[in-house]
Amino acid sequence: MTAEVKDFVRSDRAQDDIAALMLGLGERARVAAGVLAVTPSARKDEALAAMAAALRARSDDLLAANRRDMEAAEENGTAGAFLDRLKLDPARIEAMARGVEDIAALADPVGTVIAEWDRPNGLHIERVRTPLGVIGVVFESRPNVTADAGALCLKAGNAVILRPGSESTHSSRAIHACLVEGLESAGLPGDAIQIVPTTERAAVGEMLRGLGGTIDVIVPRGGRSLVERVQSEARVPVFAHLEGICHIYVHAPADLEMAKAIVVNAKMRRTGICGAAETLLIDTALADSHLKPLVTALLEAGCEVRGDEATLAADSRVKPAFAGDYGKEFLDAVIAVKVVDGLEAAIGHIDAYGSHHTEAIVTDDEAAAAEFFARVDSAILLHNASTQFADGGEFGMGAEIGIATGRMHARGPVGVEQLTSFKYRVRGSGQTRP
Amino acid sequence: MTAEVKDFVRSDRAQDDIAALMLGLGERARVAAGVLAVTPSARKDEALAAMAAALRARSDDLLAANRRDMEAAEENGTAGAFLDRLKLDPARIEAMARGVEDIAALADPVGTVIAEWDRPNGLHIERVRTPLGVIGVVFESRPNVTADAGALCLKAGNAVILRPGSESTHSSRAIHACLVEGLESAGLPGDAIQIVPTTERAAVGEMLRGLGGTIDVIVPRGGRSLVERVQSEARVPVFAHLEGICHIYVHAPADLEMAKAIVVNAKMRRTGICGAAETLLIDTALADSHLKPLVTALLEAGCEVRGDEATLAADSRVKPAFAGDYGKEFLDAVIAVKVVDGLEAAIGHIDAYGSHHTEAIVTDDEAAAAEFFARVDSAILLHNASTQFADGGEFGMGAEIGIATGRMHARGPVGVEQLTSFKYRVRGSGQTRP
């Protein structure tokens, strides 16, 4: 960008231009949403199949576009983990295409009658699923989100406006071209899946304000700072979670081998996902029998353990936990461990430090598990299972666009069903209200 | 209020005080919500029964408090309709007490398993209803909303913060005292139903900002200007509708007598409710046969008819409809009538002028009704029935806190079930994720 262009994009004129540009996207999305709302399942699935085919057929274009993004990122001295997220290769393109096909194979939620009943006056009432409308997806470096989010929104009959991270612009645009090819080959409007044609950050601000009422919901996909900005600025509903500060509480009596397997899996299977455990709470009654073996199992799995006094005493490799370690989303091979005085204290700790995402209890005490289920206010609660099951696929819901911790509408995994709304259809034979 | 006090309440100091006051309400509500979330149904119903008893026992107090509000309103020269909404009498108090008992008789939605399924790995997943948490209700002159909203929120296990209109302060506070008496007599925290102790408008602003994350949803109950303010300022989800611009479309072939009965009922049964019809659309194919009889029936029922050229020609008493009459919520004995060229034009008109609340089609053509149901994007659609059925009671959902036109979570009548959220309970036997 030349200095002249940079001045321009900072000017009011450019802001107005971006607002107008984005409003245009919103209006076209709204028109496309009207078409999608009455598009039969078979037509949507035909488009999805054609998208997958286009992703495979155009894989050379995708790789070339990705190379431009990778080179730019390398020039900027971007770190390795970021480059790995950004990178496309033939295997990842194939996985993306298969992901789109998997979404095609899901049941179409639109038109499903969720509930129906008759009234004494003969009215028959149905509550039926409808698309949500227009969804805005704001994401970061992973270009595959373009295909995942586009396909999932289409399956639920929604138009979508995608705003990829500026680092993955070329890759995302090349993927987007395949999606549009799929839509158009099935006779659906290309505007059903649009990509923001500018990398200016002001475009995101416009989306968060709802593009003149055309966007129904915003889904941020990315790190904490992105989600935080979206949650604080958005004037439309947001499906997201800010953090996954997941707890495991081991309550007496508990099978030690089961506890070890669950704790190590919950923390270490993948440390960077939102369902990874961040804090281990151990009942005082198990301090003698379970604390040391659990800590040792974690340490031997390569996990750094930060603990309270009792945990420090269990193994010399344990580091002291500072106050900030409880309630921290490490997203790494680090766990905070604390001995708590029973169920009440565990629930109190989770209430104080949790993020309402996912928590697990490991115990043979059914009553304690029931109490934990009733009183812990998180989207997902597990008994004797790993927190890493917090995932739409693992729930059997198929692909998900993310996990939400809000209390409205979508909570837990946000799959195709959560991307719908509903309306009432009432059939009468001339009824008037007395 | 003295000039000195008026200066004070306008000062920054007072604003800070109101913010702190309101935050305290939010925090106490959150604590109460934690108790209510695990309160058994029987205990909540016991509290509701005690509330009804207290309303009856304290009816003299309620009437005396109401007299103060009425006198103040009369001194301010308030209009008759407003005074009628504000007024309490023994019959209205009895109706309020019975309303609370009716809510007690509803099924408790909390704890209901909405869906459950097993995974191949043996995990058993349940989606179970939970309370939403803390609900803020902002209302205007009708003091009975205090009891209705308080009881409905309690039934669904939610804490509620009520902010009555300043004109009904004394009445609402007296009713609120009965609700607290009922709560406490059942051993529930009085903070489960709180009333804002100041009439300062700044308190509403604090609620709309969510009281430090303690309020989960805001429900405005009142006229357009209140709802508009709430929808534009709220930083938390809002369950509401701004307008009920309900349409009736009569499509050929249609039984004339049925159409007359439905149209007159939809417009004239009660003209001031949100489900009252505001615009009548008539298919060109029925212009010769149905237009004149429908217009005559409306005129004879005492309705002012504003019409297009064809409608004007049908009866000399018809007044010309100006552009603004279509899409206007008259909330009065006035209707706008227009002849439209078939289903497509009717849907286009509703799309352009409607408010996504409630629309009806009157026709014997099942395919046209199905098309209308599929394509009109409103919360409630009716075939051969009056729009005045847009009501939680008429839907068989029991009492409602209002009608929502949002696309998220609550849509259509907002009854006890819509005042809930859900969480997942997952039961395993040691499963870890591969």
Profile the largest sheet of chain A. 7 strands, parallel
Tell me the Rg of chain A in angstroms. 24 Å
- Domain module count of chain A: 2
Low-confidence stretches of chain A: none
Give the overall pLDDT of chain A as a whole number.
Answer: 94
* Class by alpha and beta content of chain A: alpha/beta
- Main sheet: strand order of chain A: 10-9-11-8-7-12-13
CATH superfamily of the largest domain in chain A: Aldehyde Dehydrogenase, Chain A, domain 1
Q: Would you state the CATH class of the largest domain in chain A?
A: Alpha Beta
Strand % of chain A is: 15-25%
> Greatest interface and its residue counts?
A-B, 60 and 61 residues
Specify the CATH architecture of the largest domain in chain A.
3-Layer(aba) Sandwich
Distance between the termini of chain A: 69 Å
Global morphology of chain A: globular
Instruction: Supply the number of helical segments of chain A.
Output: 15
Multimeric state: homodimer
Query: How many E strands of chain A?
Result: 16
CATH topology of the largest domain in chain A: Aldehyde Dehydrogenase, Chain A, domain 1
- Portion of residues in helices of chain A? 40-55%
GO molecular function (chains A, B): glutamate-5-semialdehyde dehydrogenase activity; NADP binding
Domain Aldehyde dehydrogenase (chains A, B): 28-298
Pathway (chains A, B): Amino-acid biosynthesis; L-proline biosynthesis; L-glutamate 5-semialdehyde from L-glutamate: step 2/2
Catalytic activity (chains A, B): L-glutamate 5-semialdehyde + phosphate + NADP(+) = L-glutamyl 5-phosphate + NADPH + H(+)
